[in-house]
């Protein structure tokens, strides 16, 4: 069976299975648990428009998670079918940021590529944050000024309450002498942010808004 699950879908399924696992641990009411199992199965299957019978059977097993052992085994099997983020060389990344003269590119461990909806890293010395992802199927890079905040807030990319910073992108307006800046809060820790993302829609909307 080929890989068919996006990273955000994988994290959504994990979240739903964990919610079901918590219900098994906190209630003895069989009717409540059965209802949650049905809801979980419906939610995870609704992530996909087309599934083979084999794929559907695998995804639906999220509703069978009853304890930590079930969860570990299920997530391990599921991860084998996650489509990894496109691997990029340092030269590939440089091409996405042609205006940046001294680009510091991070090393990404091989095991992390299946966990990524985007590649993101901070350049503390330059007060910048870089983001690489796909928008409408095309690979794109975005960078901007980044100022960490002391308090936690809601991230625009993953919509979770995390340690964030203000990301500001600046670009030329219709008048060449005019500059436009747009910004919003995003996670300081891009790895954690990726683990939180359960839908690509906020991520792609953010990129389009910053580049418009």
Strand content: 15-25%
Q: What overall geometry do the principal axes of the alpha carbons give?
A: elongated
Largest sheet: 5 strands, antiparallel
- Could you tell me how far the N terminus lies from the C terminus, measured between alpha carbons in angstroms? 39 Å
Total count of helical runs of at least 4 residues: 7
Total DSSP E strands:
5
Following the backbone from N to C, one meets helices and strands in this order, namely HHHHHEEEEEHH
Bin the helical content.
25-40%
By secondary-structure content and strand pairing, the structural class works out as alpha+beta
Low-confidence runs of at least 5 consecutive residues = none
* Overall pLDDT score: 92
Strand line-up in the sheet with most strands: 1-2-3-4-5
Radius of gyration using CA atoms only? 20 Å
Assembly form of the protein:
single chain
């Amino acid at each position: 069976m080929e890989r068919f699950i996006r990273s955000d879908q994988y994290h959504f399924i994990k979240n739903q299975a964990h919610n079901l696992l918590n219900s098994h641990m906190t209630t003895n009411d069989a009717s409540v648990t059965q209802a949650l199992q049905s809801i979980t199965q419906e939610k995870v299957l609704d992530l996909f428009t087309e599934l083979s019978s084999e794929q559907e059977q695998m995804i639906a097993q999220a509703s069978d998670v009853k304890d930590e052992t079930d969860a570990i085994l299920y997530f391990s099997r599921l991860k084998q079918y996650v489509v990894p983020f496109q691997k990029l060389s340092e030269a590939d990344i440089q091409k996405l940021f042609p205006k940046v003269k001294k680009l510091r590119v991070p090393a990404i461990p091989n095991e992390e590529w299946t966990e990524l909806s985007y590649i993101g890293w901070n350049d503390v010395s330059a007060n910048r944050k870089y983001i690489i992802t796909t928008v409408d199927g095309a690979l794109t890079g975005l960078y901007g000024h980044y100022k960490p905040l002391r308090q936690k807030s809601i991230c625009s990319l993953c919509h979770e309450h995390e340690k964030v910073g203000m990301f500001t992108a600046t670009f030329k307006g219709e008048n060449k002498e005019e500059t436009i800046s747009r910004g919003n809060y995003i996670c300081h820790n891009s790895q954690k942010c990726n683990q939180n993302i359960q839908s690509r829609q906020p991520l792609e909307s953010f990129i389009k808004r910053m580049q418009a």
